[in-house]
Amino acid sequence: MMFSSRRKPVLYFKEQRRLTWDHCSVYKLFGVCLLLLLASLLWLQLSCSSDMAAAASSQRDGRLPQQPPPACRSESSPRDEESWGPHKLALLVPFRERFEELLVFVPFMHSFLNKKKIAHQILIINQVDHYRFNRASLINVGYLESANDTDYLAMHDVDLLPLNDALDYGFPADGPFHVASPDLHPLYHYKTYVGGILLLTKKHYHMCNGMSNRFWGWGREDDEFYRRLRKAGLQLFRPSGITTGYKTFLHVHDPAWRKRDQKRVAAQKQEQFKVDPEGGLSNLRFHVESRQELTVGGAPCTVINTRLDCDQDQTPWCLL
Ligand SMILES: [Mn+2]
Q1: Ligand 1 centre from 112 Cα, in Å?
Q2: Ligand 1 centroid vs 104 CA: distance in angstroms?
Q3: 305 vs 73, 94, 95, 267, CA distance in Å?
Q4: How far apart are CA 76 and CA 53, in angstroms?
Q5: DSSP structural state of residue 311
Q6: CA of 295 to the centre of ligand 1 (A)
Q7: What string of pLDDT tens digits covers the 320 residues of the chain?
Q8: How far is CA 275 from CA 74, 226, 232, 311, in A?
Q9: Separation of alpha carbons 46 and 37, rounded Å
Q10: Which pathway is this protein engaged in (predicted)?
Q11: How many degrees, rounded to 5, is the angle at CA 258 between CA 106 and CA 224?
Q12: Residue 237 DSSP class
């Protein structure tokens, strides 16, 4: 008895001490967590603003920023800032069934253009009819469906990502600006190539009557558009002083996909090496099935679900 009664208080005391120590550590832990949270918030804020400053200064120097785009706040600076300029870009993406590429493209381009202080609207023109893919008609639809406050457009392939921040996406006042120039595009190197990424003022696009609607399936619609540019008397501009060569873009291109869009029949070949003198915005036939405002990886875009109309007497190859 003596033994146990002498021992008990000690045990009790020990337990109590442990109890108070536990209490203490819970409060300490909470305090430390709070401090860590505050510190990380502060760090995020500081690193974001310094990243932006670094990107801006290296752009002024003409150097390539080494860092990837800052992953912080996608809605960086508000576009009311005067430094963003008076112009707004309609980024037109002709699209069908390339969901995995879209998931990368939209947040990438949103952050790329914000970094360059280019006000923009991203429009995904999604072809939902059962005809073959018609890139040119979808771009025509994008031009007509883009917001009134946009004054220039980019026809932009979804599989081509600009990796060099020095590339100009600004308002092409003097004439069309071919961002994906043959000197920089990883795949197409002929002199008259204007595909991939081309910037135009809406006024110049209208002067060309848009693009031809006769091109169903892949290819050649951009070559026909080159002739329209020439016919409209527009001078074509391309990037200069870009030192990254064929590594300027990431091209996610897999020709094994969509065999149907690569087929060419004789009649189509004949038509598609010619100029289409009348067609364009003036004879475009389409129906917008629905519009969806989406946020992809924190970046806003508008999906325009488009049903194109094919005149099968005129262009029977839309149904191959
Ligand atoms: Mn491609």
Answers
A1: 20
A2: 15
A3: 29, 11, 10, 29
A4: 12
A5: -
A6: 24
A7: 445 445 555 445 455 555 555 565 777 877 776 787 777 776 766 664 554 444 444 444 444 344 444 444 444 445 556 788 899 999 999 999 989 999 999 999 999 999 999 999 999 999 999 999 999 999 999 999 999 999 999 999 999 999 999 999 999 999 999 999 999 999 999 999 999 999 999 999 999 999 999 999 888 899 999 999 999 999 999 999 999 999 999 998 776 667 777 777 777 777 666 778 889 999 999 999 999 999 999 999 999 999 999 998 888 889 87
A8: 42, 10, 13, 18
A9: 14
A10: Protein modification; protein glycosylation
A11: 80
A12: B
Say how far apart CA 134 and CA 170 lie, in whole Å: 27
CA 188 / ligand 1 centre spacing (Å)? 10
Q: Quote the longest CA-to-CA distance of the chain.
A: 113
How much distance in Å is there from the Cα of 185 to the middle of ligand 1?
10
User: What spacing in Å lies between the alpha carbon of 254 and ligand 1's midpoint?
Assistant: 8
d(CA 110, CA 204): 25
Q: What is the CATH number of domain 88-318?
A: 3.90.550.10
| C-alpha dihedral sign at 275, 276, 277, 281 | negative
**What does each C-alpha distance from 21 to 17, 26, 32, 54 come to in angstroms?**
6, 9, 16, 48
CA-closest candidate to residue 291, choices 301, 279, 283: 301
The alpha carbon of 158 and the centre of ligand 1 are apart by a number of angstroms equal to 8
Q: Which two tokens stand for residue 37?
A: 């949270």
Ligand 1 centroid from CA 47, angstroms: 35
Domain layout of the chain by residue ranges: 22-57, 88-318
Q: What's the rounded Cα separation, in Å, for the pair 150 and 140?
A: 15
How close is the Cα of 58 to the center of ligand 1, in Å?
30
Spatial contact of 124 and 189, defined as CB atoms under 8 Å apart: no
Strand partners, 223: none
